[in-house]
Amino acid sequence: MDPLPDDPLGCRIVLLEDVEYREVEAIQASSINAAHVTPKLAKMLRAMWLNRANFEGRADYSSVNSPKDNPMLLMNTHADLNRPLDRSDAEMLGLEAARTVERFLTFRPNHTPTPLRALTQLASEVGVAAIHVKDESQRLGLGSFKALGGSYAVIRLVLEQASRELGREVDVSELQTPAVRQIAERITVGCATDGNHGKSVAAGATLVGARAAIFVHSGVTDERVAAIAQFGAEMIRVKGTYDDSVAEAERVCQEHGWIVVSDTSWPGYERIPGLVMQGYTAMLQEALQELPAAPTHVFMQAGVGGLAAAVAGHFDIVYGAKRPTFIVVEPDRAACLYESGVVGRPVKIEHGEPTIMAMLECYEPSLVAWRILSRKADAFMTVSEENAADTMRQLANPQGGDPAIVAGESGGAGLAGLLQALASNEARAKLGLDASSRVFVINTEGATDRARYEAIVGRSPAEVLGSR
Ligand SMILES: Cc1ncc(COP(=O)(O)O)c(C=O)c1O
Fold first, then answer.
1. Which of 24, 279, 300, 363 is deepest in the core (most CB within 10 A)?
2. How far apart are CA 352 and CA 228, in angstroms?
3. Does 70 reside within a domain?
4. pLDDT by residue (tens digit) across 1-13?
5. 279 in the same domain as 254
């Protein structure tokens, strides 16, 4: 194993003999240290890093409003771009599936469609025709769009078990019958979480009368843990990172015969994460019914990519060849989809510093999400910590007649991506953003950690909404 000499731009690549392309493992997002690659790939990566370093040299992430900002933007050049969705993915995210999710929602307490907000003043300031924000900050009383996914999967799994045991198709309308509840009581669901997904799974379990075991890593704040525990879930703290909590959740669930309800997928484990993603389609149908015109651009934040893939896939099914330009937005400290875009395959990236966008702090894409995004995402981009915080403040302090919106640290990241792209001539040109663009974004969470929200925005959510 001979390290190549460090090149003048700080790129160091370690060559491992006989290492296959698929074994590319560790590529650090912001300063590229080492990649374990074949000689062929090393050559390719080296060329890429050189270009990228040149690009980075011109970048300045210091302020959203700075006209010289130049976001990290990678156009998707994957061979699969614009290939049709796999049939199973199209079924998972199709219109019929969305109607099923909508029907399930009618059996949930606290269900009302979330608002679609027009930021007319901001759109005119930044030079686009429209910006619409689907505001998930109050979804099902749980504070994020994730409320739709995990709970839906839990309900579906309980109904499937009931159908098997009762020997007939059991409908969601029977969820609270004694026969179904007795079956649910014997089921335990488990998952690892940064906060929002676990809350959704725990709430779903409570609703049906099942048990939930939720695994949280050291970085999950006490406030977020308490928010999940209130649903009666057993909370299990795992030392280490999110990845450690995923591994521990799988191990413990296997040992006890519990069902893992994960929002990320891996080889051989696709169906349940697929149901979680399916749950998000109801939100998109709500938005589509309200949007005054089809969007031309979508900026969607990503952790493992499940949300972004659900949006990209569903919009592809709805709009076909006229689908909007789709941009995946990630924190620059945890950009596993961006890096996968660079390499052309899903890669696990090295852990870096934690990001305030805690819900997006993921280091390995969901396999199903990558399959969809490699076909239906047009670009991958990153935003900085400052971009995310600036956008939270911007949404809390709107200009003109725009409504105030409470967005948590991960909630405004899609909009942060748009503002970054608009601040760069190069990005605007590459993405075709201009005065006729109609942009759709989602505020994926409200103030899911109030203390952090107040520290960043300087006011409580209630004070911000008082100004609406
Ligand atoms: C508020 C919020 N936004 C965005 C995401 C990203 O979703 P995904 O991990 O499916 O990409 C998450 C994931 O937990 C989230 O909680």
1. 279
2. 26
3. no
4. 344 444 333 333 3
5. no
